[in-house]
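Deviation from plan, reported transparently: 5-amino-5-deoxy-1-O-phosphono-D-mannitol complex.
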Amino acid sequence: MCGIVSVLSLDEDCILDRILGAMERLEYRGYDSAGIACIDASAKLHRVRSVGRMAKLRDAVRTDQWSSINGGAWIGHTRWATHGQVAERNAHPHVCDGVAIAHNGIIENYQSLKNELISAGYEFESDTDSEVIAKLIAYYVKTRGLQFEEACRECMHVLQGTFAIVAISQNVPNTLIGMKLGSPMAICIDGQCRNFYIASDAIAMSSLSNSITYLLEGDFVVATRTQGGITYTITSSDGLEVERGVEPNKIQASCVGKNGYESFMLKEICEEAIVARRTYDTFDPRIIDISKFSKVSLIACGTSYYACLLAKYWIEALIKIPTDVEVASEFRYRNPVMVTSALYIFVSQSGETIDTLCAMRLVKERSCTTLAIVNVDGSSIAREADITIITPAGPEIGVASTKSFVSQIMMLLLMCVPKERVDIVQIETAINSVLADKHNMEEIARFIVGSRSVFYIGRGPSYPIALEGALKMKELSYMNAEGYPAGEIKHGPIALIDDEVCTVVIAPHDEYLDKTISNMQEIIARNGSVLLLASQDFREHMREISSHGATECLFLPTLHNVYNPFVFGVAVHLIAYNVAKSIGRDVDKPRNLAKSVTVE
Ligand code: M6R
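Because the crystal trials were delayed, the predicted structure below was used instead.
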């Protein structure tokens, strides 16, 4: 959460455009406010911050002051608020006595540092944890006679928590500093050594350089500009100068456009069939054989967690290995019992979700085998797992996970069923036919809009799909939505049913169908409005079902049981998208969220 980009440049112009472009690519990490600071060729410090999206910041720098700045050291930040509400004074960069910093992460001991600085006479203008960093560096320069670089090193030792920090100073305008502990950070330099960048991730750097170097925990990087070019050094946490590998940056800026779609989310949903096929084509069964392990534990957050829940049904039914699934933020703090004969699978689109990453580190400390299923190659989880499989969904920019979910579940299915027995053509064709049913989806959305809240219910593998549908509905439309096992609804939630509550019943043609339909009847009997998602071959049975309440049906292709989650998953994505769109929500950037959740 929060995106950082910075550049030390020998170029005279275009830097503002470059940094703004990189920040726009980072907006998925946070978009409640943004800001830039720059030290120009005459060592003057400039700063601009604005609340809202990057478009606001672009407007704010349309001035002679900003367009006339040449060269210099720049830092930019897109914010997802942790400490302090969304307000300009809380936006980064934070500045103190000519030092400017941008920070991603959380400084856990900020309150005691802040108290110390207040006692020393400093006044704080923000409610953030991050402001202490700028003040602390300035304080060390002033009171301990340290150079900027030394003050930053000292600051890094004192800070507790997680951070990726970039810092510049008016006193040393030819220097850019980066510090990494717990939050992702990468660097790159162009071929002529005229531009050196530090940023949160490879997406920010796409179009700036073809190569990238990922920093490791505790790394401290100093870039210095001279007439001859830019040089840099990296110091590891034990104080030694180190080299980190240079890799190709596989993400190209051209992959992250909307390609004519009105939103990234719609584009990404429309890619779900292609992604299912691509995942199937690229999967190599030799990478992992689950059947060799005594037990499987799957750990993840959000939609990735629902993909894991689905896999539990498959692993237990098809490979018959005991399987448990856990939310990463719970797993990592409850002293879990681990066994070395088990396989621990971590699923994440971004590969940076801090809870999933820390849960994986915990498992590694106990010498158990970790397998990561991650969409972003080069991400922290991808790099640290014992075995990594990259889901080939391609960059997913919409905050809601859509095509990455399809890729995750295809990958997990392929670990349970021999590849040649998975009928990819059937899956692909079925997803495409759901995607083609655009008009029907708009009708369905109209049926839900106006409901006081929405329940999603399902049994067996349709239960994770119910959870996924509800999560998408709430994060995109801001409507109250809950997913339940269909059999649980009568244990309490049924008290909420009335004609203003819509229940989406996920009822594919499988062994659970009759029981799910009975649960649907119980809701209809209580005047609940019902949207039934059923397999095509259920159409004629529907006529026999009493429909006193408002009942709407969406029939989806009839498939082999195991494949149902693919088509019902796509359908719940499209329904949430259409509801949110019809009530004017920003589907790509829902309020209060960020794509990459790098704080606890
Ligand atoms: O990047 P990850 O898959 O680790 O992210 C996990 C969740 O933050 C993510 O799935 C989130 O719930 C999505 N916004 C859901 O659409």
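DSSP finds 20 helices and 25 strands in the chain. We consider this an acceptable substitute for the interim report.
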